[in-house]
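EI: anyone free to look at a 870-residue chain?
SC: sure, send it
EI:
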Amino acid sequence: MAMAARILEDRPPLGADPLRAAMRRAHRADEAATVATLLTEAAVAPEQRARIQARARRLAERVRQAGGDQLGVEAFLHEYSLSTREGVMLMCLAEALLRIPDPQTRDRLIRDKLSLGDWARHLGQSESLFVNASTWGLMLTGRLIRVDLERDGEIGARFARLVQRLGEPVVRQAIERSMRMLGRHFVLGQTIDAAIRRAREFEQKGYRYSYDMLGEGAKTTADAVRYQGAYRDAIAAIVKAAEGDDLMARPSVSIKLSALHPRYELAQHRRLEAELLPSLLELLTDARAGRITVTIDAEEADRLEPSLDLFERLVTAPQLDRWDGLGLAVQAYQKRALHVIAWLEDLARRHRRRIPVRLVKGAYWDTEIKRAQEQGLNGYPVFTRKLATDVSYLACARRLLAGGDAFYPQFATHNAQTLASILEFAGNRRAFEFQRLHGMGEALYADLRAEADLGVACRVYAPVGSHEDLLPYLVRRLLENGANSSFVNRILDPAIPIETLVEDPALRLARLEPKPNPKIPLPRVLYGAGRVNSRGIDLADPEELAGLAERIEADFAPGLMARPTAGNSRTMPWTTYDPADRSRSIGSVVAADAATVEEAAMVAARAFPAWDRTAVEARAACLERAADLYEDNTPELLAWCVREAGKTLIDAVAEVREAVDFLRYYAGEARAVVPPHELPGPTGESNQLALHGRGVFATISPWNFPLAIFTGQIAAALAVGNAVIAKPAPQTPLIASRAVALLHQAGVPEDALILLPGGPEIGARLVESTAIAGVAFTGSTQTAWRINRALATKDGPIPALIAETGGQNAMLVDSSALPEQVVADVLLSAFRSAGQRCSALRILCLQDTIADRVLEMLAGAMLELKIGDP
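SC: here you go
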């Protein structure tokens, strides 16, 4: 079928690579099973463990004993960890302050984020001059921060008076200076030339450098061209300044693929092949000619597949033949990390290459957890315990060292135990290096390098860019190292014994049960025992996509007829067409006529009492069976959402999942209704409270959510005992017909749920029927008013009206917002679901100081959208 072919059209062929297949299985594997494998891989003999712990203890003690300013950023992150209120406020402030061009907004942000912080209690708690200088800057908020005069005495009072005298402009400058001081500790230079000059001092001490040009993912072609130019200029400058003959000892560059293409995702595989691959080859050819290495940086888990596809194409490119300077970063917190290394080793041996591999723990953990929960995936792509990531890192390190000449391992770590373990695994081998972040880990690596017998190289990963580009990177570093599980944070906490810090993580993890973190439930049980989360589809998994295409091929059959499920309509059938291609017929419809409406109303009215008397548990069970049937028939329902409603696949998945969530949610809500019970009253009286359905509900749903809202209205009414007559939008009756069929299959009586396809006139007649006790409507405000007036003219009990209507949804953006995030959210809200979400963005209000930049970026991002057959 054409649709199944189109699903896979822009995805790379799966091929027959068993190592990639194993990697994908690991991605989907149970976390406990993966941990069991890692514990075996990372296990060490008792004598090895003793040597590792002795060295780790020595390193950790030296770091803890180091002078305050040898631990500038580490001390800062410990004092203002994310477990403190002030640490969270500071992260929020750091994320935005230096990006804001106007002083008024900066003042308001400072006031907002710092007004509730107790900064004075941090003063003098650290030996670091850097920390105390930053704390003084944060205290310089005068009227904005409440100084506890009773506790802080004369010092606090003097500062309060000082700031009142100086005023907010000076306060702002002090805070900005603190933020820039923090930024300078994370960024080597604002330009590549400045960074190279600053690096020379450390290169003379034996350090190597890897330069990372800061910048979040490109949103437009212009962004990608600008980043391409920045990388090209950086490579030229580094080549010019590089010294020595050893390729691995010379400076290197780190490249983010998302910076070089605005649609860096699996769904745009063809574009990546045609557009991104040539850009990469151009940069790498320059690096090869200049004899420096390039590392492809790791990003989010759903981008691993395209990055490996591109990496393989680059390894086999004739322009890069016999060049060992192309490297890749591997994230140990991903469950498939070991399998990625196995695949890289096979690739290196097949093509007689040596691949530099930067092993990192990972910087997007919180994002990966949140995304998997939001998407309803079967599991997480990352480990849910920090300990498991540490063990995975050790297992991957051993595999890299065992790979011999296939790899040049580059171990990025600030953890003394991890570092000591790698030295033990390596034995006498020295064909590897350690890496640390610029501004961090200086004390740890200074001690390591002081041990002359080791001869271990260390490279500094050095971000380069403006303070504005720094901010998202800075927040990732604060999240990564400011967490209370981080070694960087814990090493400075005297309450944590050194022995705890240097204990073998594999031993600690082996003792823990369960292996996955019980505080982080799997996405399917996110809502607890009361409701199962709807099942999602990992659209970044090529094998899952291939399986979906096969199911659609087998399950979806155009030619369905939608017709009233009660009465005998005499209207002639009409043909429905695919909105993406009006020449493609997909089914036919027999619309209800006036007589059918009345017949259906009488049938539903007769069915109502029996359905209302049905036990709540039985009604709820019907809805839950329907939810299961929806999930079992997901491929077919997806196909109808795409073919009849014109939804993209990602929106169709969300549509089906929302419908399933509605069914299970209303089943749970119905069970929560108070059962009939006696009320207290005077002797001789019997007072009972019981809840019942109202009668027959008419549900009138829109085309933009032809399954989710259609199902949600029906489920809510059925759950509490009402009979339902469902009228779908005239554009999407086939989806409605399949939904009603599944609800009947789940046990909802056919006379308690009746489908009436038709146009607006059928909806109007339905509302006017005397049998209708209530209406649930989603659509325009004008139509809702007409329904309201029609119901008001009827004699008898006043029918209920539940109306969800349209509006002018607005987004207000000031200069503290990250433009790339604004543009991503605008595109998502304004144009997903064919721009017809109830919550779709209609009005974008921008602060004038950022308007031109955001509008230019937004226009460019819109041009990158691929419009056509969904």
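EI: The chain is about 50% helix and 10% strand.
SC: 👍
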